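Example record for the data management plan.
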Amino acid sequence: MFEDDRDDKIYNLVITNGIDKNNEYGQFTEKLFSKVDFLWKESISGSYELAGEGFYKKVDRIILLAGLYNDNKELFGHLLNAAEKYEIPIVLVRPMGLEEVPEVLEEKAATIVGWNANCIIDAIKDAPETM
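Corresponding structural encoding:
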């Protein structure tokens, strides 16, 4: 990595979790951990619906794991609302092994990505700041 290419920013992420039959959350975070030159932390709230401006203003990206959508629609709804209200870019990760994503999520996403670790990091870094 060239010195000019260094990105010392620590990305503050909200990553969907919840009912996760295929351990997509665990697999996703493993991808992030595998890229030692990518600095990140995760913000977690007991209720994303009730978390306010103080919580969301610190968040750089909301990561929606599309494979968890069907079993966690309420959680996704709260995060979609927060992303819109606080102008947080959404990085939508396709379901493991599939190309299609729910249309309601695709419409709100700043970017859509598969499961390649390099592509995930690029999507997080390059997600448009405005929605």
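Summary line stored alongside the record: The two ends are 31 Å apart (CA to CA).
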